[in-house]
Each structure stands twice: as C-alpha cells, then as structure tokens.
Specification:
By secondary structure, the chain is an alpha+beta fold. 30% of the residues lie in helices and 32% in strands. The chain has helices at residues 40-53, 58-61, 74-87, 110-121, 139-142, and strands at residues 2-15, 19-21, 24-26, 30-33, 91-100, 128-133, 146-156. Helix 1 packs parallel to helix 3.
Length: 158
C-alpha cells in the first residue's frame, strides 16, 4: 500500500540574523517569525508525513498555544512525527519539496539542506529533493515579507 501526503507552511519575515531552513541556518539579514524556530521547510515535511499516514497535523501535535513549544526546534517535531509514522508501519519512499523565497538564493545551500533532512529522517539523501522558487518580486514572497514551503511525500507499507 502507498499513500501521498502534502504539507505547506508560511511564515512572516522580520529583521534577524539568518533563516532556518531544513534544519540548516542560512546567513540572511532576515529571519522567519513564529512560535517555534519557524523552519517552514521542516514544518511542511512534518505535515506531509502526518497527512500521508492519516495521523493528524503539526498544529495538533505541537499547538502554538502550548508554552512548551515556544522556540522549539522543528527537528524535534519532525522526529516525533516520523516516530508516529514508522510506529504505524509506514516507510518513506521519497519527498519532493519547494521553498518559496525571493532571497536568499537556496541553490548554494541545497546540498546541506538535503543532507540534514535525510539525516533527520534516517533515509538516503537520494530520496530527498529540494527546489526553490522566487516570488518574481510579486506579493508577500516576492516583496520579502514572507517565506513558504511545500512538500509532497510518498510513503509505503508492506
């Protein structure tokens, strides 16, 4: 049996000293604003995994109304979701992600991000793909007011 999950996340941008994307800090004059560390990519992956397995979503597991989640490392959330998914008998086949950001350029950081995600998910890096799209200077993404990510994941159970 196979199942597909889709995850999405968006965060506002504000003054800061770097973006956390896929568990990697990328130098930038802005940072994503959120209750946790605001890693839009890991949040999208977490939701995609949970959705594929029919196990809820990131907001259910880690509500922003819970003070324990303030500043929480998104890698912890992803690991918890992965544990639920694997405990339910599912394995990751692959995931394909898109980061929507006008800046910074993601390509120079893609290898590090793919490697970190593969490490967090305990899968071969060949199963992880990352792409980036700008907002073409239009809307909140293009005007550098926001950053977003989407992820599609394929899981299987024998």
């Amino acid at each position: 049996m196979i199942r597909v999950g889709l995850g999405h996340d968006t965060h506002r941008l504000g003054p800061g000293n770097g973006l956390v994307l896929g568990g990697v800090t990328i130098p930038h004059q802005q940072m994503a604003l959120g209750h946790s560390d605001a890693d839009v990519l890991l949040h999208a992956i977490t939701d995609a995994l949970l959705g594929a397995a029919g196990l809820g979503d990131i907001g259910e597991l880690f509500p922003d109304t819970d003070p324990a989640n303030k500043g929480r490392d998104s890698a912890e959330m992803l690991r918890a979701a992965l544990e639920r998914v694997t405990d339910a008998g599912w394995q990751i086949v692959n995931l394909d992600c898109v980061i929507f950001a006008q800046r910074p350029k993601i390509l120079p950081h893609r290898t590090a991000i793919r490697n970190r995600i593969a490490e967090l998910l305990a899968i071969d890096v060949a199963r992880v793909w990352i792409k980036a799209k700008t907002g073409e200077m239009v809307g909140p993404i293009g005007e550098e007011q926001a950053i977003a990510a989407e992820c599609v994941v394929l899981i299987e159970r024998e």
